[in-house]
Amino acid sequence: MATALCPHCGTPNREGSHFCNRCGAALLAAPHAAPPQQQPAPPAAPDRAASQPWLNPGFVGEDDVPLEEESADQALLGEQAPLPATRLVSGLQGLLDPIRVVTVPQEGGETEPSLPATALTAEKLRRVRSLMAEEPLVASSPLPVPAPSLWLRWIFGILAIGVAAPLLLGWPLPADEPTRWTGVEPGFDSIEALPSGARVQLLWAFDSATVGEMELVSSPVLRHLAARRARVDASSLLPAGPATAQRLLSRIDPERTLWASPDRASPLPSVRFLPGGAAVLPLLAAEPADLAVLLAAQAEDVQHWLEQVAPRNRVPVLAVTAAGADLPLRPYLESGQLVGLVSGFDGAYQYNELLGQPFAAADIPLLRRQIVGQSYGALTLLAIVLLGNFAAWLAGRPRER
Amino acid sequence: MNVDVLLPAGWAAGAGLWVGFVFTLLIFSALLGDHLLARLAQYVLVGALLGYTVVVTWQSILASTWVAALHAEPWTPRWQWAPAAAAAILAVAGLGRILAQSGLRPPASRWLEALRLLGALPALGLAAVAAALALTGSIQGTLGPQFLHAARNGLIWGAPWAMLASNLVALLVTAAALVALVTDPAQHLTSQPAWVQRLLRGWIWLGQRALWLAAGALFARLFASRLSLWVAEVTYWTQAIQSTELGQQLEQGWRLWMGR
Amino acid sequence: MSAAARTHWLLALLFLLALLLIGAERLPGTPASLRLLGFETVLLLAGVSLLLGVVNVLALHLRRIVLGQQDWPLSLLLIAVLIAVAGAGLLTPAGAASPLLEWVFDALIAPGQRALFAMLVFFMAAAAFQFLRIGRPGGLWMLVGFLLLLLVQTPLPLWLLPQNQLPAAASFLDPLTNAARWMLDVPAMAALRGVLLGGSLAWIVIGARLLLGKP
């Protein structure tokens, strides 16, 4: 095959190449070299090509193999995706050392497939070079992000107004009370049955991201624990958990009197941070306790406790969770692994009622607004779902069932 | 060094409220589409959160638990050096790996290569412990108790007929959902006799519908959860801004405008 | 043996060792101090891994700046904020409890996290618009599950009807609500239990693959 020497770095390139494969210099003005049998390439070049396959013009790296067989634009251009080599280019036209971001084990050995170099044109070369200069892709090739459609913004607007307007304009409360879920009452009873000064393990598995909902449901439970003079040992698996706990406990007990007891030095329970997720939870099983109370925004945190701690220390567990974590945890309530389950705004309402004392002054407007917001929000969502079905019917092309 | 002098106590709380409000608006502005200001807020949030995580991790784990303990009594509990040494190896090897991935590879040497290999041990050990805990935990905390509960409850023969029927439905659907999750009809059923295929296809059909039904219910409950956050957000900012001077003036104007 | 195969086998060996240790840890004669040391080592390594993760993010953004990639000024801002917050916390003895860090938490971190999560409700509404449709695969069943839970969770019909029609509506709705509760308590719960069992079985398969050196 005829080659063209690069005037800049001396690397042999295929005849007709517009740019040098190594340094990118323009080759059109360069004199064509003789075929390799007449003028052999410089001795270093074959070694480099063998040891540094990323310098090969057809190289894309195994990690750059698209998940889809052929992208749409390639198909349109009538191109075939180059075969993957065994290593990955890290960027800058292969000038940096190759790295493996993710490894996809290849079946059938480690030999490098030969590349159909003759099929490459100058345009393809330029594309390959630009690909090589890009960041290595860890997952699939980036898909074009669809611009927000008209509907999307309309939906956002409808929901924002449907919830915020009743709140800001003080629309009336619904006639009915929130529903009562099984699990709240046994949960209440489990704290009520605690002797004064009982040891309670507290897992603080939420931070400021979900405090808006978790504050509602945690407050009556924490207040109940304080009333029972429980000795709380609290931990959090989230870095922002202790700070969130400190703020919420201060809001619940601004006078610092609720948790006061002769044997407690600190006016509020302190929460420590434990990194490592479920892997460090067994540490907590070593501590003696009469009850474990899990304040969790995600069902997984409760599940991890039931898998890692509860079988070790056999301490009864009460889960206090966000509404979204409720259904996945119900099987654990049914099987008796949870002694109680208090979740969401409706669980908070029911627990507050069970406490038998007037709702805390701070909780009344919060709960009232939650009930108003939930009711109008549900109504708005129903309208949106109806709209979606209507739009699909109007479009006249229902998809296959 | 005390960096807290950078924060004048007089106006910090008030400024913090308005900074937080503007920051919230910037984050919410992503709903209007991708734009520079929304991205700016997201980058600042990630930066602040990561910086905060560094401080909390250092303070609560590394400094307080280990560095302080070893500093106070360096030689008494000798076995405590083993985890600290493993952590140090992991840190150095991890840093080397990150540098290499960034293209800033340190000069090759046999020592560095040995350290890199040694660093793989604590990392792989951590992964192995996490996987082993997940496996044993899922068996003793979920698989065992849930399987026993489903089996026991489904087979209480002396129960009233309504309860018995419900329990049997629950058992049937539990098994159907499990079969629907783990079976690929194209792969697993083609070599089976026709009657087995028909039976299993029916069962999978049932399991799939039960899973969809549960997914719909789960969606509604999750929506309620996220809606709570939006309601709490509107409530929080309404109350917070109402408590400021500007907020009170705005409220007066609003009342005048609404005729209340 | 290739490096990847060596890694896989080492992981398999460590996994087996971890399984044995976890089994031994449950035995009555195991010293408590040994158990504590094991899990505290995990805690320490997890802390170091978390910090390495932060350093990795720093390196990634530094690289974006060096290469002048898109949004590199934002990467610069991220690094500046990260270093400022971490530096401020590490330089004061109070650490995360220092007034400056508390201010950062209250003015940036908490509002930002709250807003990000509160925003999810809008995307969920968009998902409901798109997916809770009768014509889609499983759409009808999901819609039924969604409406059943809504009926139990938010008794909208009782709220929307005029007061004088409430008793008649209640007598009609009560059996409906009871049926909805049964659907949620029995078939939907059974399906969720099936998911839990399926997840646990998946862990067993993953464990077996690890032991065979095929993660």
Strand and helix map with partners:
The complex is a heterotrimer of chains A (401), B (260) and C (215).
Chain A: E1 3-5, E2 12-14, H1 44-51, H2 72-77, H3 122-133, H4 150-169, H5 184-192, E3 199-205, H6 211-227, E4 231-236, H7 241-252, E5 271-273, E6 291-296, H8 299-308, H9 310-313, E7 317-321, H10 326-334, E8 340-343, H11 344-355, H12 363-395
Chain B: H1 9-28, H2 36-72, H3 81-101, H4 110-154, H5 161-182, H6 185-188, H7 194-242, H8 245-258
Chain C: H1 3-25, H2 32-67, H3 72-91, H4 99-118, H5 120-131, H6 139-153, H7 156-160, H8 166-211
Helix pairs in contact in C: 2-3, 6-8
How does this structure look, described?
The complex is a heterotrimer of chains A (401), B (260) and C (215). With 401 residues, chain A is α/β, with parallel strands linked by helices. In chain A, 38% of the residues lie in helices and 9% in strands. In chain A, helix 4 packs antiparallel against helix 12 (363-395), helix 6 packs across helix 7 and helix 6 (211-227) packs parallel to helix 11 (344-355). Mean pLDDT of chain A is 72; it is low at 30-49, 51-118 and 135-148. Chain B is mainly α. Chain B folds into 3 domains: 1-76, no CATH class; 81-145, no CATH class; 155-260, no CATH class. In chain B, 82% of the residues lie in helices and 0% in strands. The longest helix of chain B has 49 residues, at 194-242. The two termini of chain B are 54 Å apart. Chain C contains 8 helices and no strands. In chain C, helix 2 (32-67) runs antiparallel to helix 3 and helix 6 (139-153) crosses helix 8 (166-211). Chains in contact: A-B, A-C, B-C. At the B-C interface, helix 1, helix 2, helix 3, helix 4 and helix 5 of B face helix 1, helix 2, helix 3, helix 4 and helix 5 of C.
